[in-house]
């Protein structure tokens, strides 16, 4: 998919586990996961989600990672001396489902079914992010997700979405008001998130 500025979404991985509220995707390239708080898309119909965890781990979980750099000066030298390392690890990301699309309109609630395993995962274009976040009805899914990093995720997500908007400051003001409506009974949490939302 190409947005109005000619920017393309990027195929970054493949769904390897999925549930009603989130999915896990394995990246095709080591260390090439989308950043925390970014929007990704997968499946047909398209499911939209927010990246909340990135993990790089051994392909074989029974083999512990051992330090290998004692006798070298730089990390580049360590990689040159051990070219096999990149084939022994994988990067995965977990994403919280924030909505889906039907007939080119966005629904900001959970889809009837999670995406299928082996669905391709794409980064969203700035245009997709701007259109999806034109409504902030996905915020309750994020704030009530029960994720230990939900507040950090809200800050990262809204900061990132602001860069896709025509007027990022107006978007952040609107987002701050929406957060205040959602968290009016929890002022300390609201204050903490607002500090993270500030650019």
What is the topological layout?
Blueprint: E1 11-18, E2 22-27, E3 39-42, E4 47-58, H1 75-81, H2 85-88, E5 89-102, E6 105-107, E7 120-123, H3 126-132, H4 139-143, H5 150-164, H6 168-182, H7 187-197
Antiparallel strand pairs: 1-2, 1-7, 2-5, 3-4, 3-7, 4-5, 5-6
**Tally of contiguous helical segments:** 7
Major sheet summary line? 6 strands, antiparallel, barrel
Radius of gyration from CA coordinates = 19 Å
* Helix vs. strand class: alpha+beta
- Termini separation (Å)? 28 Å
Written as H for each helix and E for each strand, in order along the chain, the element string is EEEEHHEEEHHHHH
Strand content: 25-35%
Which strands sit side by side, in order, in the main sheet?
A: 1-2-5-4-3-7
Uncertain regions spanning at least 5 consecutive residues = none
Overall 3D geometry?
Answer: globular
How many strands? 7
Helix content: 25-40%
Mean pLDDT equals 92
Number of domains: 1
What does this structure look like?
This protein is 32% helix and 26% strand. A 6-stranded antiparallel β-barrel has the order 1-2-5-4-3-7. With 199 residues, the protein is of the alpha+beta class. The longest helix is centred in the C-terminal third of the chain and has 15 residues. It is globular. Strand 5 and strand 6 form a beta hairpin. Helix 5 packs antiparallel against helix 6. The chain has one domain. The chain is built from 7 helices and 7 strands, in the order E-E-E-E-H-H-E-E-E-H-H-H-H-H.
């Amino acid at each position: 998919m190409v947005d109005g500025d000619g920017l393309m979404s990027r195929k970054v991985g493949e769904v390897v586990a999925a549930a009603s509220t989130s999915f896990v995707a394995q990246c095709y390239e080591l260390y090439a996961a989308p950043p925390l708080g970014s929007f990704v898309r997968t499946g047909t119909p398209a499911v939209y989600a927010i990246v909340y965890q990135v993990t790089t781990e051994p392909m074989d979980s029974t083999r512990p990672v051992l330090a290998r750099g004692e006798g070298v000066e730089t990390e580049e030298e360590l990689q040159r001396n051990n070219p096999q390392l990149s084939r022994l690890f994988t990067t995965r990301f977990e994403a919280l489902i924030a909505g889906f699309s039907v007939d080119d309109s966005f629904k900001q609630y959970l889809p009837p079914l999670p995406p299928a395993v082996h669905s391709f995962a794409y980064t969203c274009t700035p245009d997709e992010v701007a259109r999806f976040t034109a409504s902030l009805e996905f915020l309750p899914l994020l704030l009530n997700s029960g994720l230990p990093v939900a507040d950090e995720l809200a800050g990262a997500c809204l900061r990132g979405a602001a860069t896709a908007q025509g007027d990022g400051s107006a978007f952040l003001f609107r987002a701050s008001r929406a957060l205040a409506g959602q968290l009016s009974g929890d002022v300390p949490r609201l204050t903490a998130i607002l500090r993270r939302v500030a650019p």
